[in-house]
Design brief:
This protein is 57% helix and 16% strand. The longest helix has 22 residues.
């Protein structure tokens, strides 16, 4: 049995390293539009990115527009490392998802097969739309 054995969360030994890894992967994903990584990291970043974008879309379409914008900016500063990535999310990604009323499926993960030098399973993670 696999009780309490979640393979996805065992990427880094500690919450701080896991948080930094996810922030780094999210920043790379937003700036380039797609990343190629291992399968464990890919599954984890897909889940984190879907949750992140869902929260951003929910707050950007809030009734009080000014308060929603403040919360979105605060979340972006907390999560992404660069200002360029934050500007890209606010100017390009959020308006398209808000108009389409997307609630999920912001990110797609596709398996690519094993890497040549260590046979680790590769995965490509892309932002949809």
């Amino acid at each position: 049995m696999r009780h309490k054995n979640n393979r996805v969360t065992k990427l880094a030994p500690g919450a701080q390293k896991y948080s930094l890894l996810m922030r780094n992967l999210l920043t790379s994903l937003v700036t380039s539009g797609q990343i190629i990584t291992t399968q464990k990291r890919g599954k984890a970043v897909c889940a984190e990115a879907d949750s992140f974008f869902a929260h951003l879309v929910r707050w950007s379409t809030a009734d009080d527009a000014a308060a929603g914008k403040r919360v979105v900016i605060a979340m972006l500063k907390q999560t992404l490392f660069t200002e360029d990535a934050g500007k890209k999310v606010i100017n390009d990604l959020l308006p398209a998802r808000s108009q389409a009323k997307m609630n999920s499926w912001f990110v797609t993960g596709l398996k690519l097969g094993p890497r040549k030098w260590d046979a680790a399973e590769k995965m490509i993670v892309r932002i949809n739309g």
